[in-house]
Structures are given as C-alpha cells and as structure tokens.
Amino acid sequence: MFLYMKRAWVSLAAVAAVAACAVIMLTACSSSQGKVGTTQVTQTAAGPVVEVILKDYEITMPDSVPPGTVKFNITNAGTHDHNFQIDLKGTKKRLDTDVKPGGTATLVVALTSGTYDVECPVGVHATMGMRRKLMVPGDR
Ligand SMILES: [Cu+2]
C-alpha cells in the first residue's frame, strides 16, 4: 500500500512538471516577434548594460532597455557563427566580425526612445528566428 502511494505521488509530480512546462511553452509561443526569453539589463554610470545570448537560431535579450549609451554584452551560445545587428533608424550597426561559437563581443550604441529591429545578419538566420524588436521608452 505504502509503495503504491509513493508511486502515485511520483507520477503526480511528473504530470505536474509536464503541465508546468506546457504553460511555460504556451507563454513563450504567445509572445510577439518570435522573441525567446529575456536576459538582464544593468544600469551603470556609463549607461545600460544588456546581456545578449545568440543561439541557433534565436536571440535572447530583454524586450526593452532604458535610453542612453547602451552596451550589449553578446555571447554566442550556438554552434554556428553569429552576429548582432541593430537598425538605428536606417543606419545598421553590427559587430565588425562574426562571433564564433562560445565567443563574446560587445557593441555600444546610443539609443533614444523608439523601437529598433535587432537581428543576426549571417546568412538566413534572421528568417530562421534570429530577429526581434527592442523597445526604448521615452526619456524620463
Ligand atoms: Cu546567426
């Protein structure tokens, strides 16, 4: 009897875990512009510092950052070379060289209020999912 109860609890826990995952996936799927997860933004004296994780094929970063001189700390956690490009209202700025798997790079850009297109400009990565919007709210 005791053993039976124990097994029942284990399977109940498994069901609960699966249900929790399903909820998380639903939340992720319902979000816009194919964004995948968020990372941290840290306010420093020099401006906001944003962690960016590039994977095959998604960009993980916050949906919005405060205005200012924004430093993107970019990590390639994928298995292919990736890059990071932000469209500064017509002028596209990207890393001078692609980031190798496991590599890191930083890109510093001045951002004012608006919505910016962020993507990986390597091959067709953007259409494969490495594209998202970044919101910068109004100054104060
Ligand atoms: Cu890429």
Could you give a short description of this structure?
The protein is of the alpha+beta class. Helix content is 21%, strand content 38%.
Kindly describe this structure.
By secondary structure, the protein is of the alpha+beta class. It has two domains: 1-30; 41-136, Cupredoxins -  blue copper proteins (Immunoglobulin-like). 21% of the residues lie in helices and 38% in strands. It has one helix and nine strands. The strands form two sheets. Strands 1, 2, 3, 4 and 7 form a five-stranded mixed sheet that branches. It has a four-stranded antiparallel sheet with strand order 6-5-8-9, with no helix packed on it. The longest helix is centred in the N-terminal third of the chain and has 29 residues, at 2-30. The structure holds copper (II) ion. Copper (II) ion (CU) is lined by residues 82, 120, 122, 125, 130. The site of copper (II) ion has 5 residues, from loops.
Question: What ligand molecules are bound, each kind once?
Answer: copper (II) ion
> Which H/E pattern describes the elements?
HEEEEEEEEE
Q: What percent of the residues sit in helical stretches (DSSP H or I)?
A: 10-25%
Radius of gyration using CA atoms only: 19 Å
Features:
binds copper (II) ion; single chain; alpha+beta; Immunoglobulin-like; five-stranded mixed β-sheet; 140 residues; 2 domains; 9 strands
Set down the secondary structure blueprint.
Blueprint: H1 2-30, E1 41-44, E2 47-55, E3 58-60, E4 68-76, E5 85-88, E6 91-94, E7 104-111, E8 114-119, E9 131-136
Copper (II) ion is lined by residues 82, 120, 122, 125, 130.
